[in-house]
UniProtKB/TrEMBL annotation:
UniProt superkingdom: Bacteria
Cofactors named for this entry: FMN; Mg(2+)
InterPro entries the record matches: CoaB-like_sf, CoaBC, DNA/pantothenate-metab_flavo_C, Flavin_trans-like, Flavoprotein
HAMAP family, alphabetized: CoaBC
Reported function: Catalyzes two sequential steps in the biosynthesis of coenzyme A. In the first step cysteine is conjugated to 4'-phosphopantothenate to form 4-phosphopantothenoylcysteine. In the second step the latter compound is decarboxylated to form 4'-phosphopantotheine. Catalyzes two steps in the biosynthesis of coenzyme A. In the first step cysteine is conjugated to 4'-phosphopantothenate to form 4-phosphopantothenoylcysteine, in the latter compound is decarboxylated to form 4'-phosphopantotheine.
Residues annotated as the enzyme's active site: 159
Record-given protein name: Coenzyme A biosynthesis bifunctional protein CoaBC
Domain Flavoprotein residue range list: 8-180
């Protein structure tokens, strides 16, 4: 179940007898490699203990909207943004009615409202409640908003009735969740991504660098690998683990990054330059540590580094080449000009002057610019954004190369 590896699944549990099956679902999700956080309504906690779900998920269980301790750990908005997908299983008739009405009167409904992640519900209720006209109207309203319903199944019910209303079995729910993640989008494609800063040595202990965290490039590498691509990540020095199924090449300087890019870009389908490459490097690198002199000032002469992405874009067999334009003003104009100057197929523009997005933050808001389109994507987590970017990039690629 590769497509669930590292997926961040928020599992909501509402108050129905089927809640006990969600313990097994949690165990299966974890086994499939997903990271699971559980949110329970107070009624759910009457059916199954939070401690069980905490032990199975390996994470604290979230119970209340205004719990100072939980908010200090991971606040509810952070949790909403964290999720790659929200599944509420079991979803009672009451819960579905509240989501259909757009209410946010407890933690779980608030998270459903606050999250951009796909929302899926696994209804579980008595067959008469399921058939009820208002419940059916709610089902239609939820589906019209793109909310997916898994089940319910038909069969014997806990109350003794027989009919439609049973929650799907955990195996079926696991498969339904896995199906939400499109695994084939970049099947057979080779993608090279640069990420992070470069370091330009002054002497053996000093260097010139920048604040790039590498998060956007790493998120893209993860999303591309999840979409089935063979991914090579050329990374400057960062504090991040290599995503699963990604081949990482660690480099230091812009020259190292260029060498690695030229070495790997041959025959790749897509090249994404997410690295914050130093534009200049010291002309001379001292072999010994520079000692403080008597002078009140010192000068380091800098010379220009090669432009990595422009070099790749100029290759005879060039891949679909995508750059980033991190700007502080006149963002779109600079980005358009940069795309043309570097001969890129696409440029991803972002405004790094806005607090909370761009450099070193977990979120980003970008505009994609190609020769024909300009598409603005709303602010979201870098992981979510990476998935959206992959979806926008995939249609540009030829089916065979
Ligand atoms: N880039 C690169 N090699 C460089 C400089 C930049 O590959 N030596 C890539 C970046 O990875 C990014 C894009 O070019 O995808 C734009 O980077 P940016 O620093 O915004 O562009 P510069 O050309 O350096 O322009 P400026 O700093 O003047 O805005």
């Amino acid at each position: 179940m590769l497509r669930l590896t590292n997926r961040q699944i928020l599992l909501g549990i509402t108050g129905g007898i089927a809640a006990y099956k969600s313990a097994e679902l949690t165990r299966m999700l974890k086994k499939a490699g997903a990271d699971v956080r559980v949110v329970m309504t107070p009624a759910a906690a009457e059916f199954i203990t939070p401690l069980t779900l905490q032990a199975l998920s390996g994470n604290p269980v979230h119970l209340q909207l205004l719990d100072p301790e939980a908010e200090a750990g991971m606040g509810h908005i952070e949790l909403a943004r964290w999720a790659d997908l929200i599944l509420v299983a079991p979803a009672t008739a009451d819960f579905m009615a509240r989501v259909a009405a757009g209410m946010g009167n407890d933690l779980l409904t608030t998270l459903c409202l606050a999250s951009d992640a796909p929302l899926c519900l696994a209804p579980a209720m008595n067959q008469a409640m399921w058939r009820d006209q208002q419940t059916q109207l709610n089902v239609q309203a939820l589906q019209a908003r793109g909310i997916q319903l898994f089940g319910p199944a038909s069969g014997e019910q806990a109350c003794g009735d027989t009919g439609i209303g049973r929650m799907l079995e955990p195996e079926a729910l696991l498969q339904a969740i896995a199906n939400q993640f499109d695994y084939d989008l970049l099947n057979g494609k080779r993608i090279v991504i640069t990420a992070g800063p470069t370091r330009e040595a002054i002497d053996p202990v000093r260097f010139i660098s920048n604040h790039s965290s590498g998060k956007m490039g790493y998120a893209l590498a993860e999303a591309a690998a999840d979409a089935g691509a063979e991914v090579i990540l050329i990374s400057g020095p960062v504090n991040l683990h290599a995503p699963a199924h990604v081949k990482r090449i660690m480099v230091e300087s812009a020259q190292d990054m260029l060498d690695a890019a030229l070495h790997t870009a041959d025959n790749c389908d897509v090249f994404i330059g997410a690295a914050a490459v130093a534009d200049y490097r010291p002309e001379f690198v001292s072999t010994n540590k520079l000692k403080k002199g008597k002078e009140e000032s010192m000068e380091i002469r800098l010379i220009k580094n090669a432009d990595i992405i422009a070099t790749i874009a100029a290759l005879p067999n060039k891949p679909f080449t995508i750059g980033f334009a991190a700007e502080t003003n006149d963002v779109l104009n600079y980005a358009r000009e940069k795309r043309l100057r570097k001969q890129l197929d696409m440029i991803i523009a972002n405004d790094v002057s806005i607090a909370g997005i761009g450099f070193n933050s977990d979120e980003n808001q970008v505009t994609l610019i190609t020769s024909t389109d300009e598409i603005s994507l709303p602010q979201t987590s870098k992981r979510q954004l990476a998935r959206q970017l992959i979806e926008h990039i995939a249609p540009h690629l030829p089916t065979t190369r």
